[in-house]
UniProtKB/TrEMBL annotation:
<dbReference type="GO" id="GO:0006220">
    <property type="term" value="P:pyrimidine nucleotide metabolic process"/>
</dbReference>
<keyword id="KW-0808">Transferase</keyword>
<dbReference type="Pfam" id="PF02224">
    <property type="entry name" value="Cytidylate_kin"/>
</dbReference>
<dbReference type="InterPro" id="IPR027417">
    <property type="entry name" value="P-loop_NTPase"/>
</dbReference>
<dbReference type="InterPro" id="IPR003136">
    <property type="entry name" value="Cytidylate_kin"/>
</dbReference>
<dbReference type="GO" id="GO:0036431">
    <property type="term" value="F:dCMP kinase activity"/>
</dbReference>
<dbReference type="GO" id="GO:0005737">
    <property type="term" value="C:cytoplasm"/>
</dbReference>
<keyword id="KW-0067">ATP-binding</keyword>
<protein>
    <recommendedName>
        <fullName>Cytidylate kinase</fullName>
        <ecNumber>2.7.4.25</ecNumber>
    </recommendedName>
</protein>
<dbReference type="GO" id="GO:0005524">
    <property type="term" value="F:ATP binding"/>
</dbReference>
<keyword id="KW-0963">Cytoplasm</keyword>
<keyword id="KW-0547">Nucleotide-binding</keyword>
<feature type="domain" description="Cytidylate kinase">
    <location>
        <begin position="3"/>
        <end position="201"/>
    </location>
</feature>
<comment type="similarity">
    <text>Belongs to the cytidylate kinase family. Type 1 subfamily.</text>
</comment>
<dbReference type="GO" id="GO:0036430">
    <property type="term" value="F:CMP kinase activity"/>
</dbReference>
<feature type="binding site">
    <location>
        <begin position="7"/>
        <end position="15"/>
    </location>
    <ligand>
        <name>ATP</name>
    </ligand>
</feature>
<keyword id="KW-0418">Kinase</keyword>
């Protein structure tokens, strides 16, 4: 059982993916963290995120880095969307994600290209979305909760720039898979969004 959850920044896909993993008893991988980890290493080494060869050298990192709270910042998110546009960087992280998806018993993965590239044969595909203003408000509150002070306008501008970059890149752009069910969380509480996601997942499972 493979469940693919894709969508733009702060749409709620991570929250939904975690809840689905718990509901169906499956392991979960937040694939955005892999790109964020590469970005954090690029920043720590003072490298230029636009230089593909330099970034590729940062793709072999220790699993422990994924738990670092430093990966949450807006700056790391923005840098992640620059490094993730490089085809060789995506190739370097591909097998790790495929192995996770294909493990015995199944898995839930969330990201931008799970239903299109990483697991095109996934049993369940959800595309989670919400308006940019609502996503910016959620992300702004989340950052403040973690003690990161940044203005709402700045978060909104970053989200728009990231949407733009993630959708326009030539390699594995952010787009809805043709067979994905869309879940707009704009006017849903977390509980309502999760309930809807479980119902959509069960409906797709019944078709297989
Ligand atoms: N339906 C919702 N209503 C209100 N807040 C939400 C909802 N879904 C998620 N959130 C909150 O928005 C923030 C971003 O959600 P997250 O699941 O991390 O998004 P993503 O993984 O798409 O970036 C988190 O603080 C989360 O608690
Ligand atoms: N499967 C994925 C996941 C993330 N990413 C990139 O990594 C960046 C950070 O992803 P994320 O999922 O942690 O970001 P949020 O949606 O949590 O803000 C995104 O803007 C994408 O550029 C990707 O290209 N492919």
């Amino acid at each position: 059982m493979i469940i693919a959850v894709d969508g733009p920044a702060a749409s709620g896909k991570g929250t939904i993916a975690r809840a689905l993993a718990k509901h169906f008893g499956l392991p979960h991988l937040d694939t955005g963290l892999l790109y964020r980890a590469v970005a954090a290493r690029v920043l720590a080494e003072g490298l230029d995120p636009a230089r593909e060869a330099d970034v590729v050298a940062m793709c072999d990192f220790d699993e422990g880095l994924l738990a670092s709270p430093d990966l949450r910042t807006d700056h790391v998110g923005k840098t992640a969307s620059i490094v993730s546009a490089h085809p060789l960087v995506r190739a370097a992280l591909l097998q790790r994600q495929r192995r996770f998806a294909q493990q015995e018993g199944g898995a839930v993965l969330d990201g931008r290209d799970i239903g299109t590239v990483i697991a095109p044969d996934a049993d369940v595909k959800l595309f989670v979305k919400a308006t940019p203003a609502i996503r910016a408000r959620r992300r702004h509150e989340e950052l403040r909760r973690h003690g990161i002070e940044v203005s709402y306008d700045r978060v909104l501008a970053d989200i728009r720039a990231r949407d733009d970059r993630d959708s326009r890149r030539s390699e594995a752009p952010l787009r809805q898979a043709a067979d994905a069910a869309v879940l707009d969380t704009s006017f849903l509480s977390i509980e309502a969004a999760v309930q809807r996601a479980v119902a959509l997942a069960e409906a797709q499972m019944a078709r297989h």
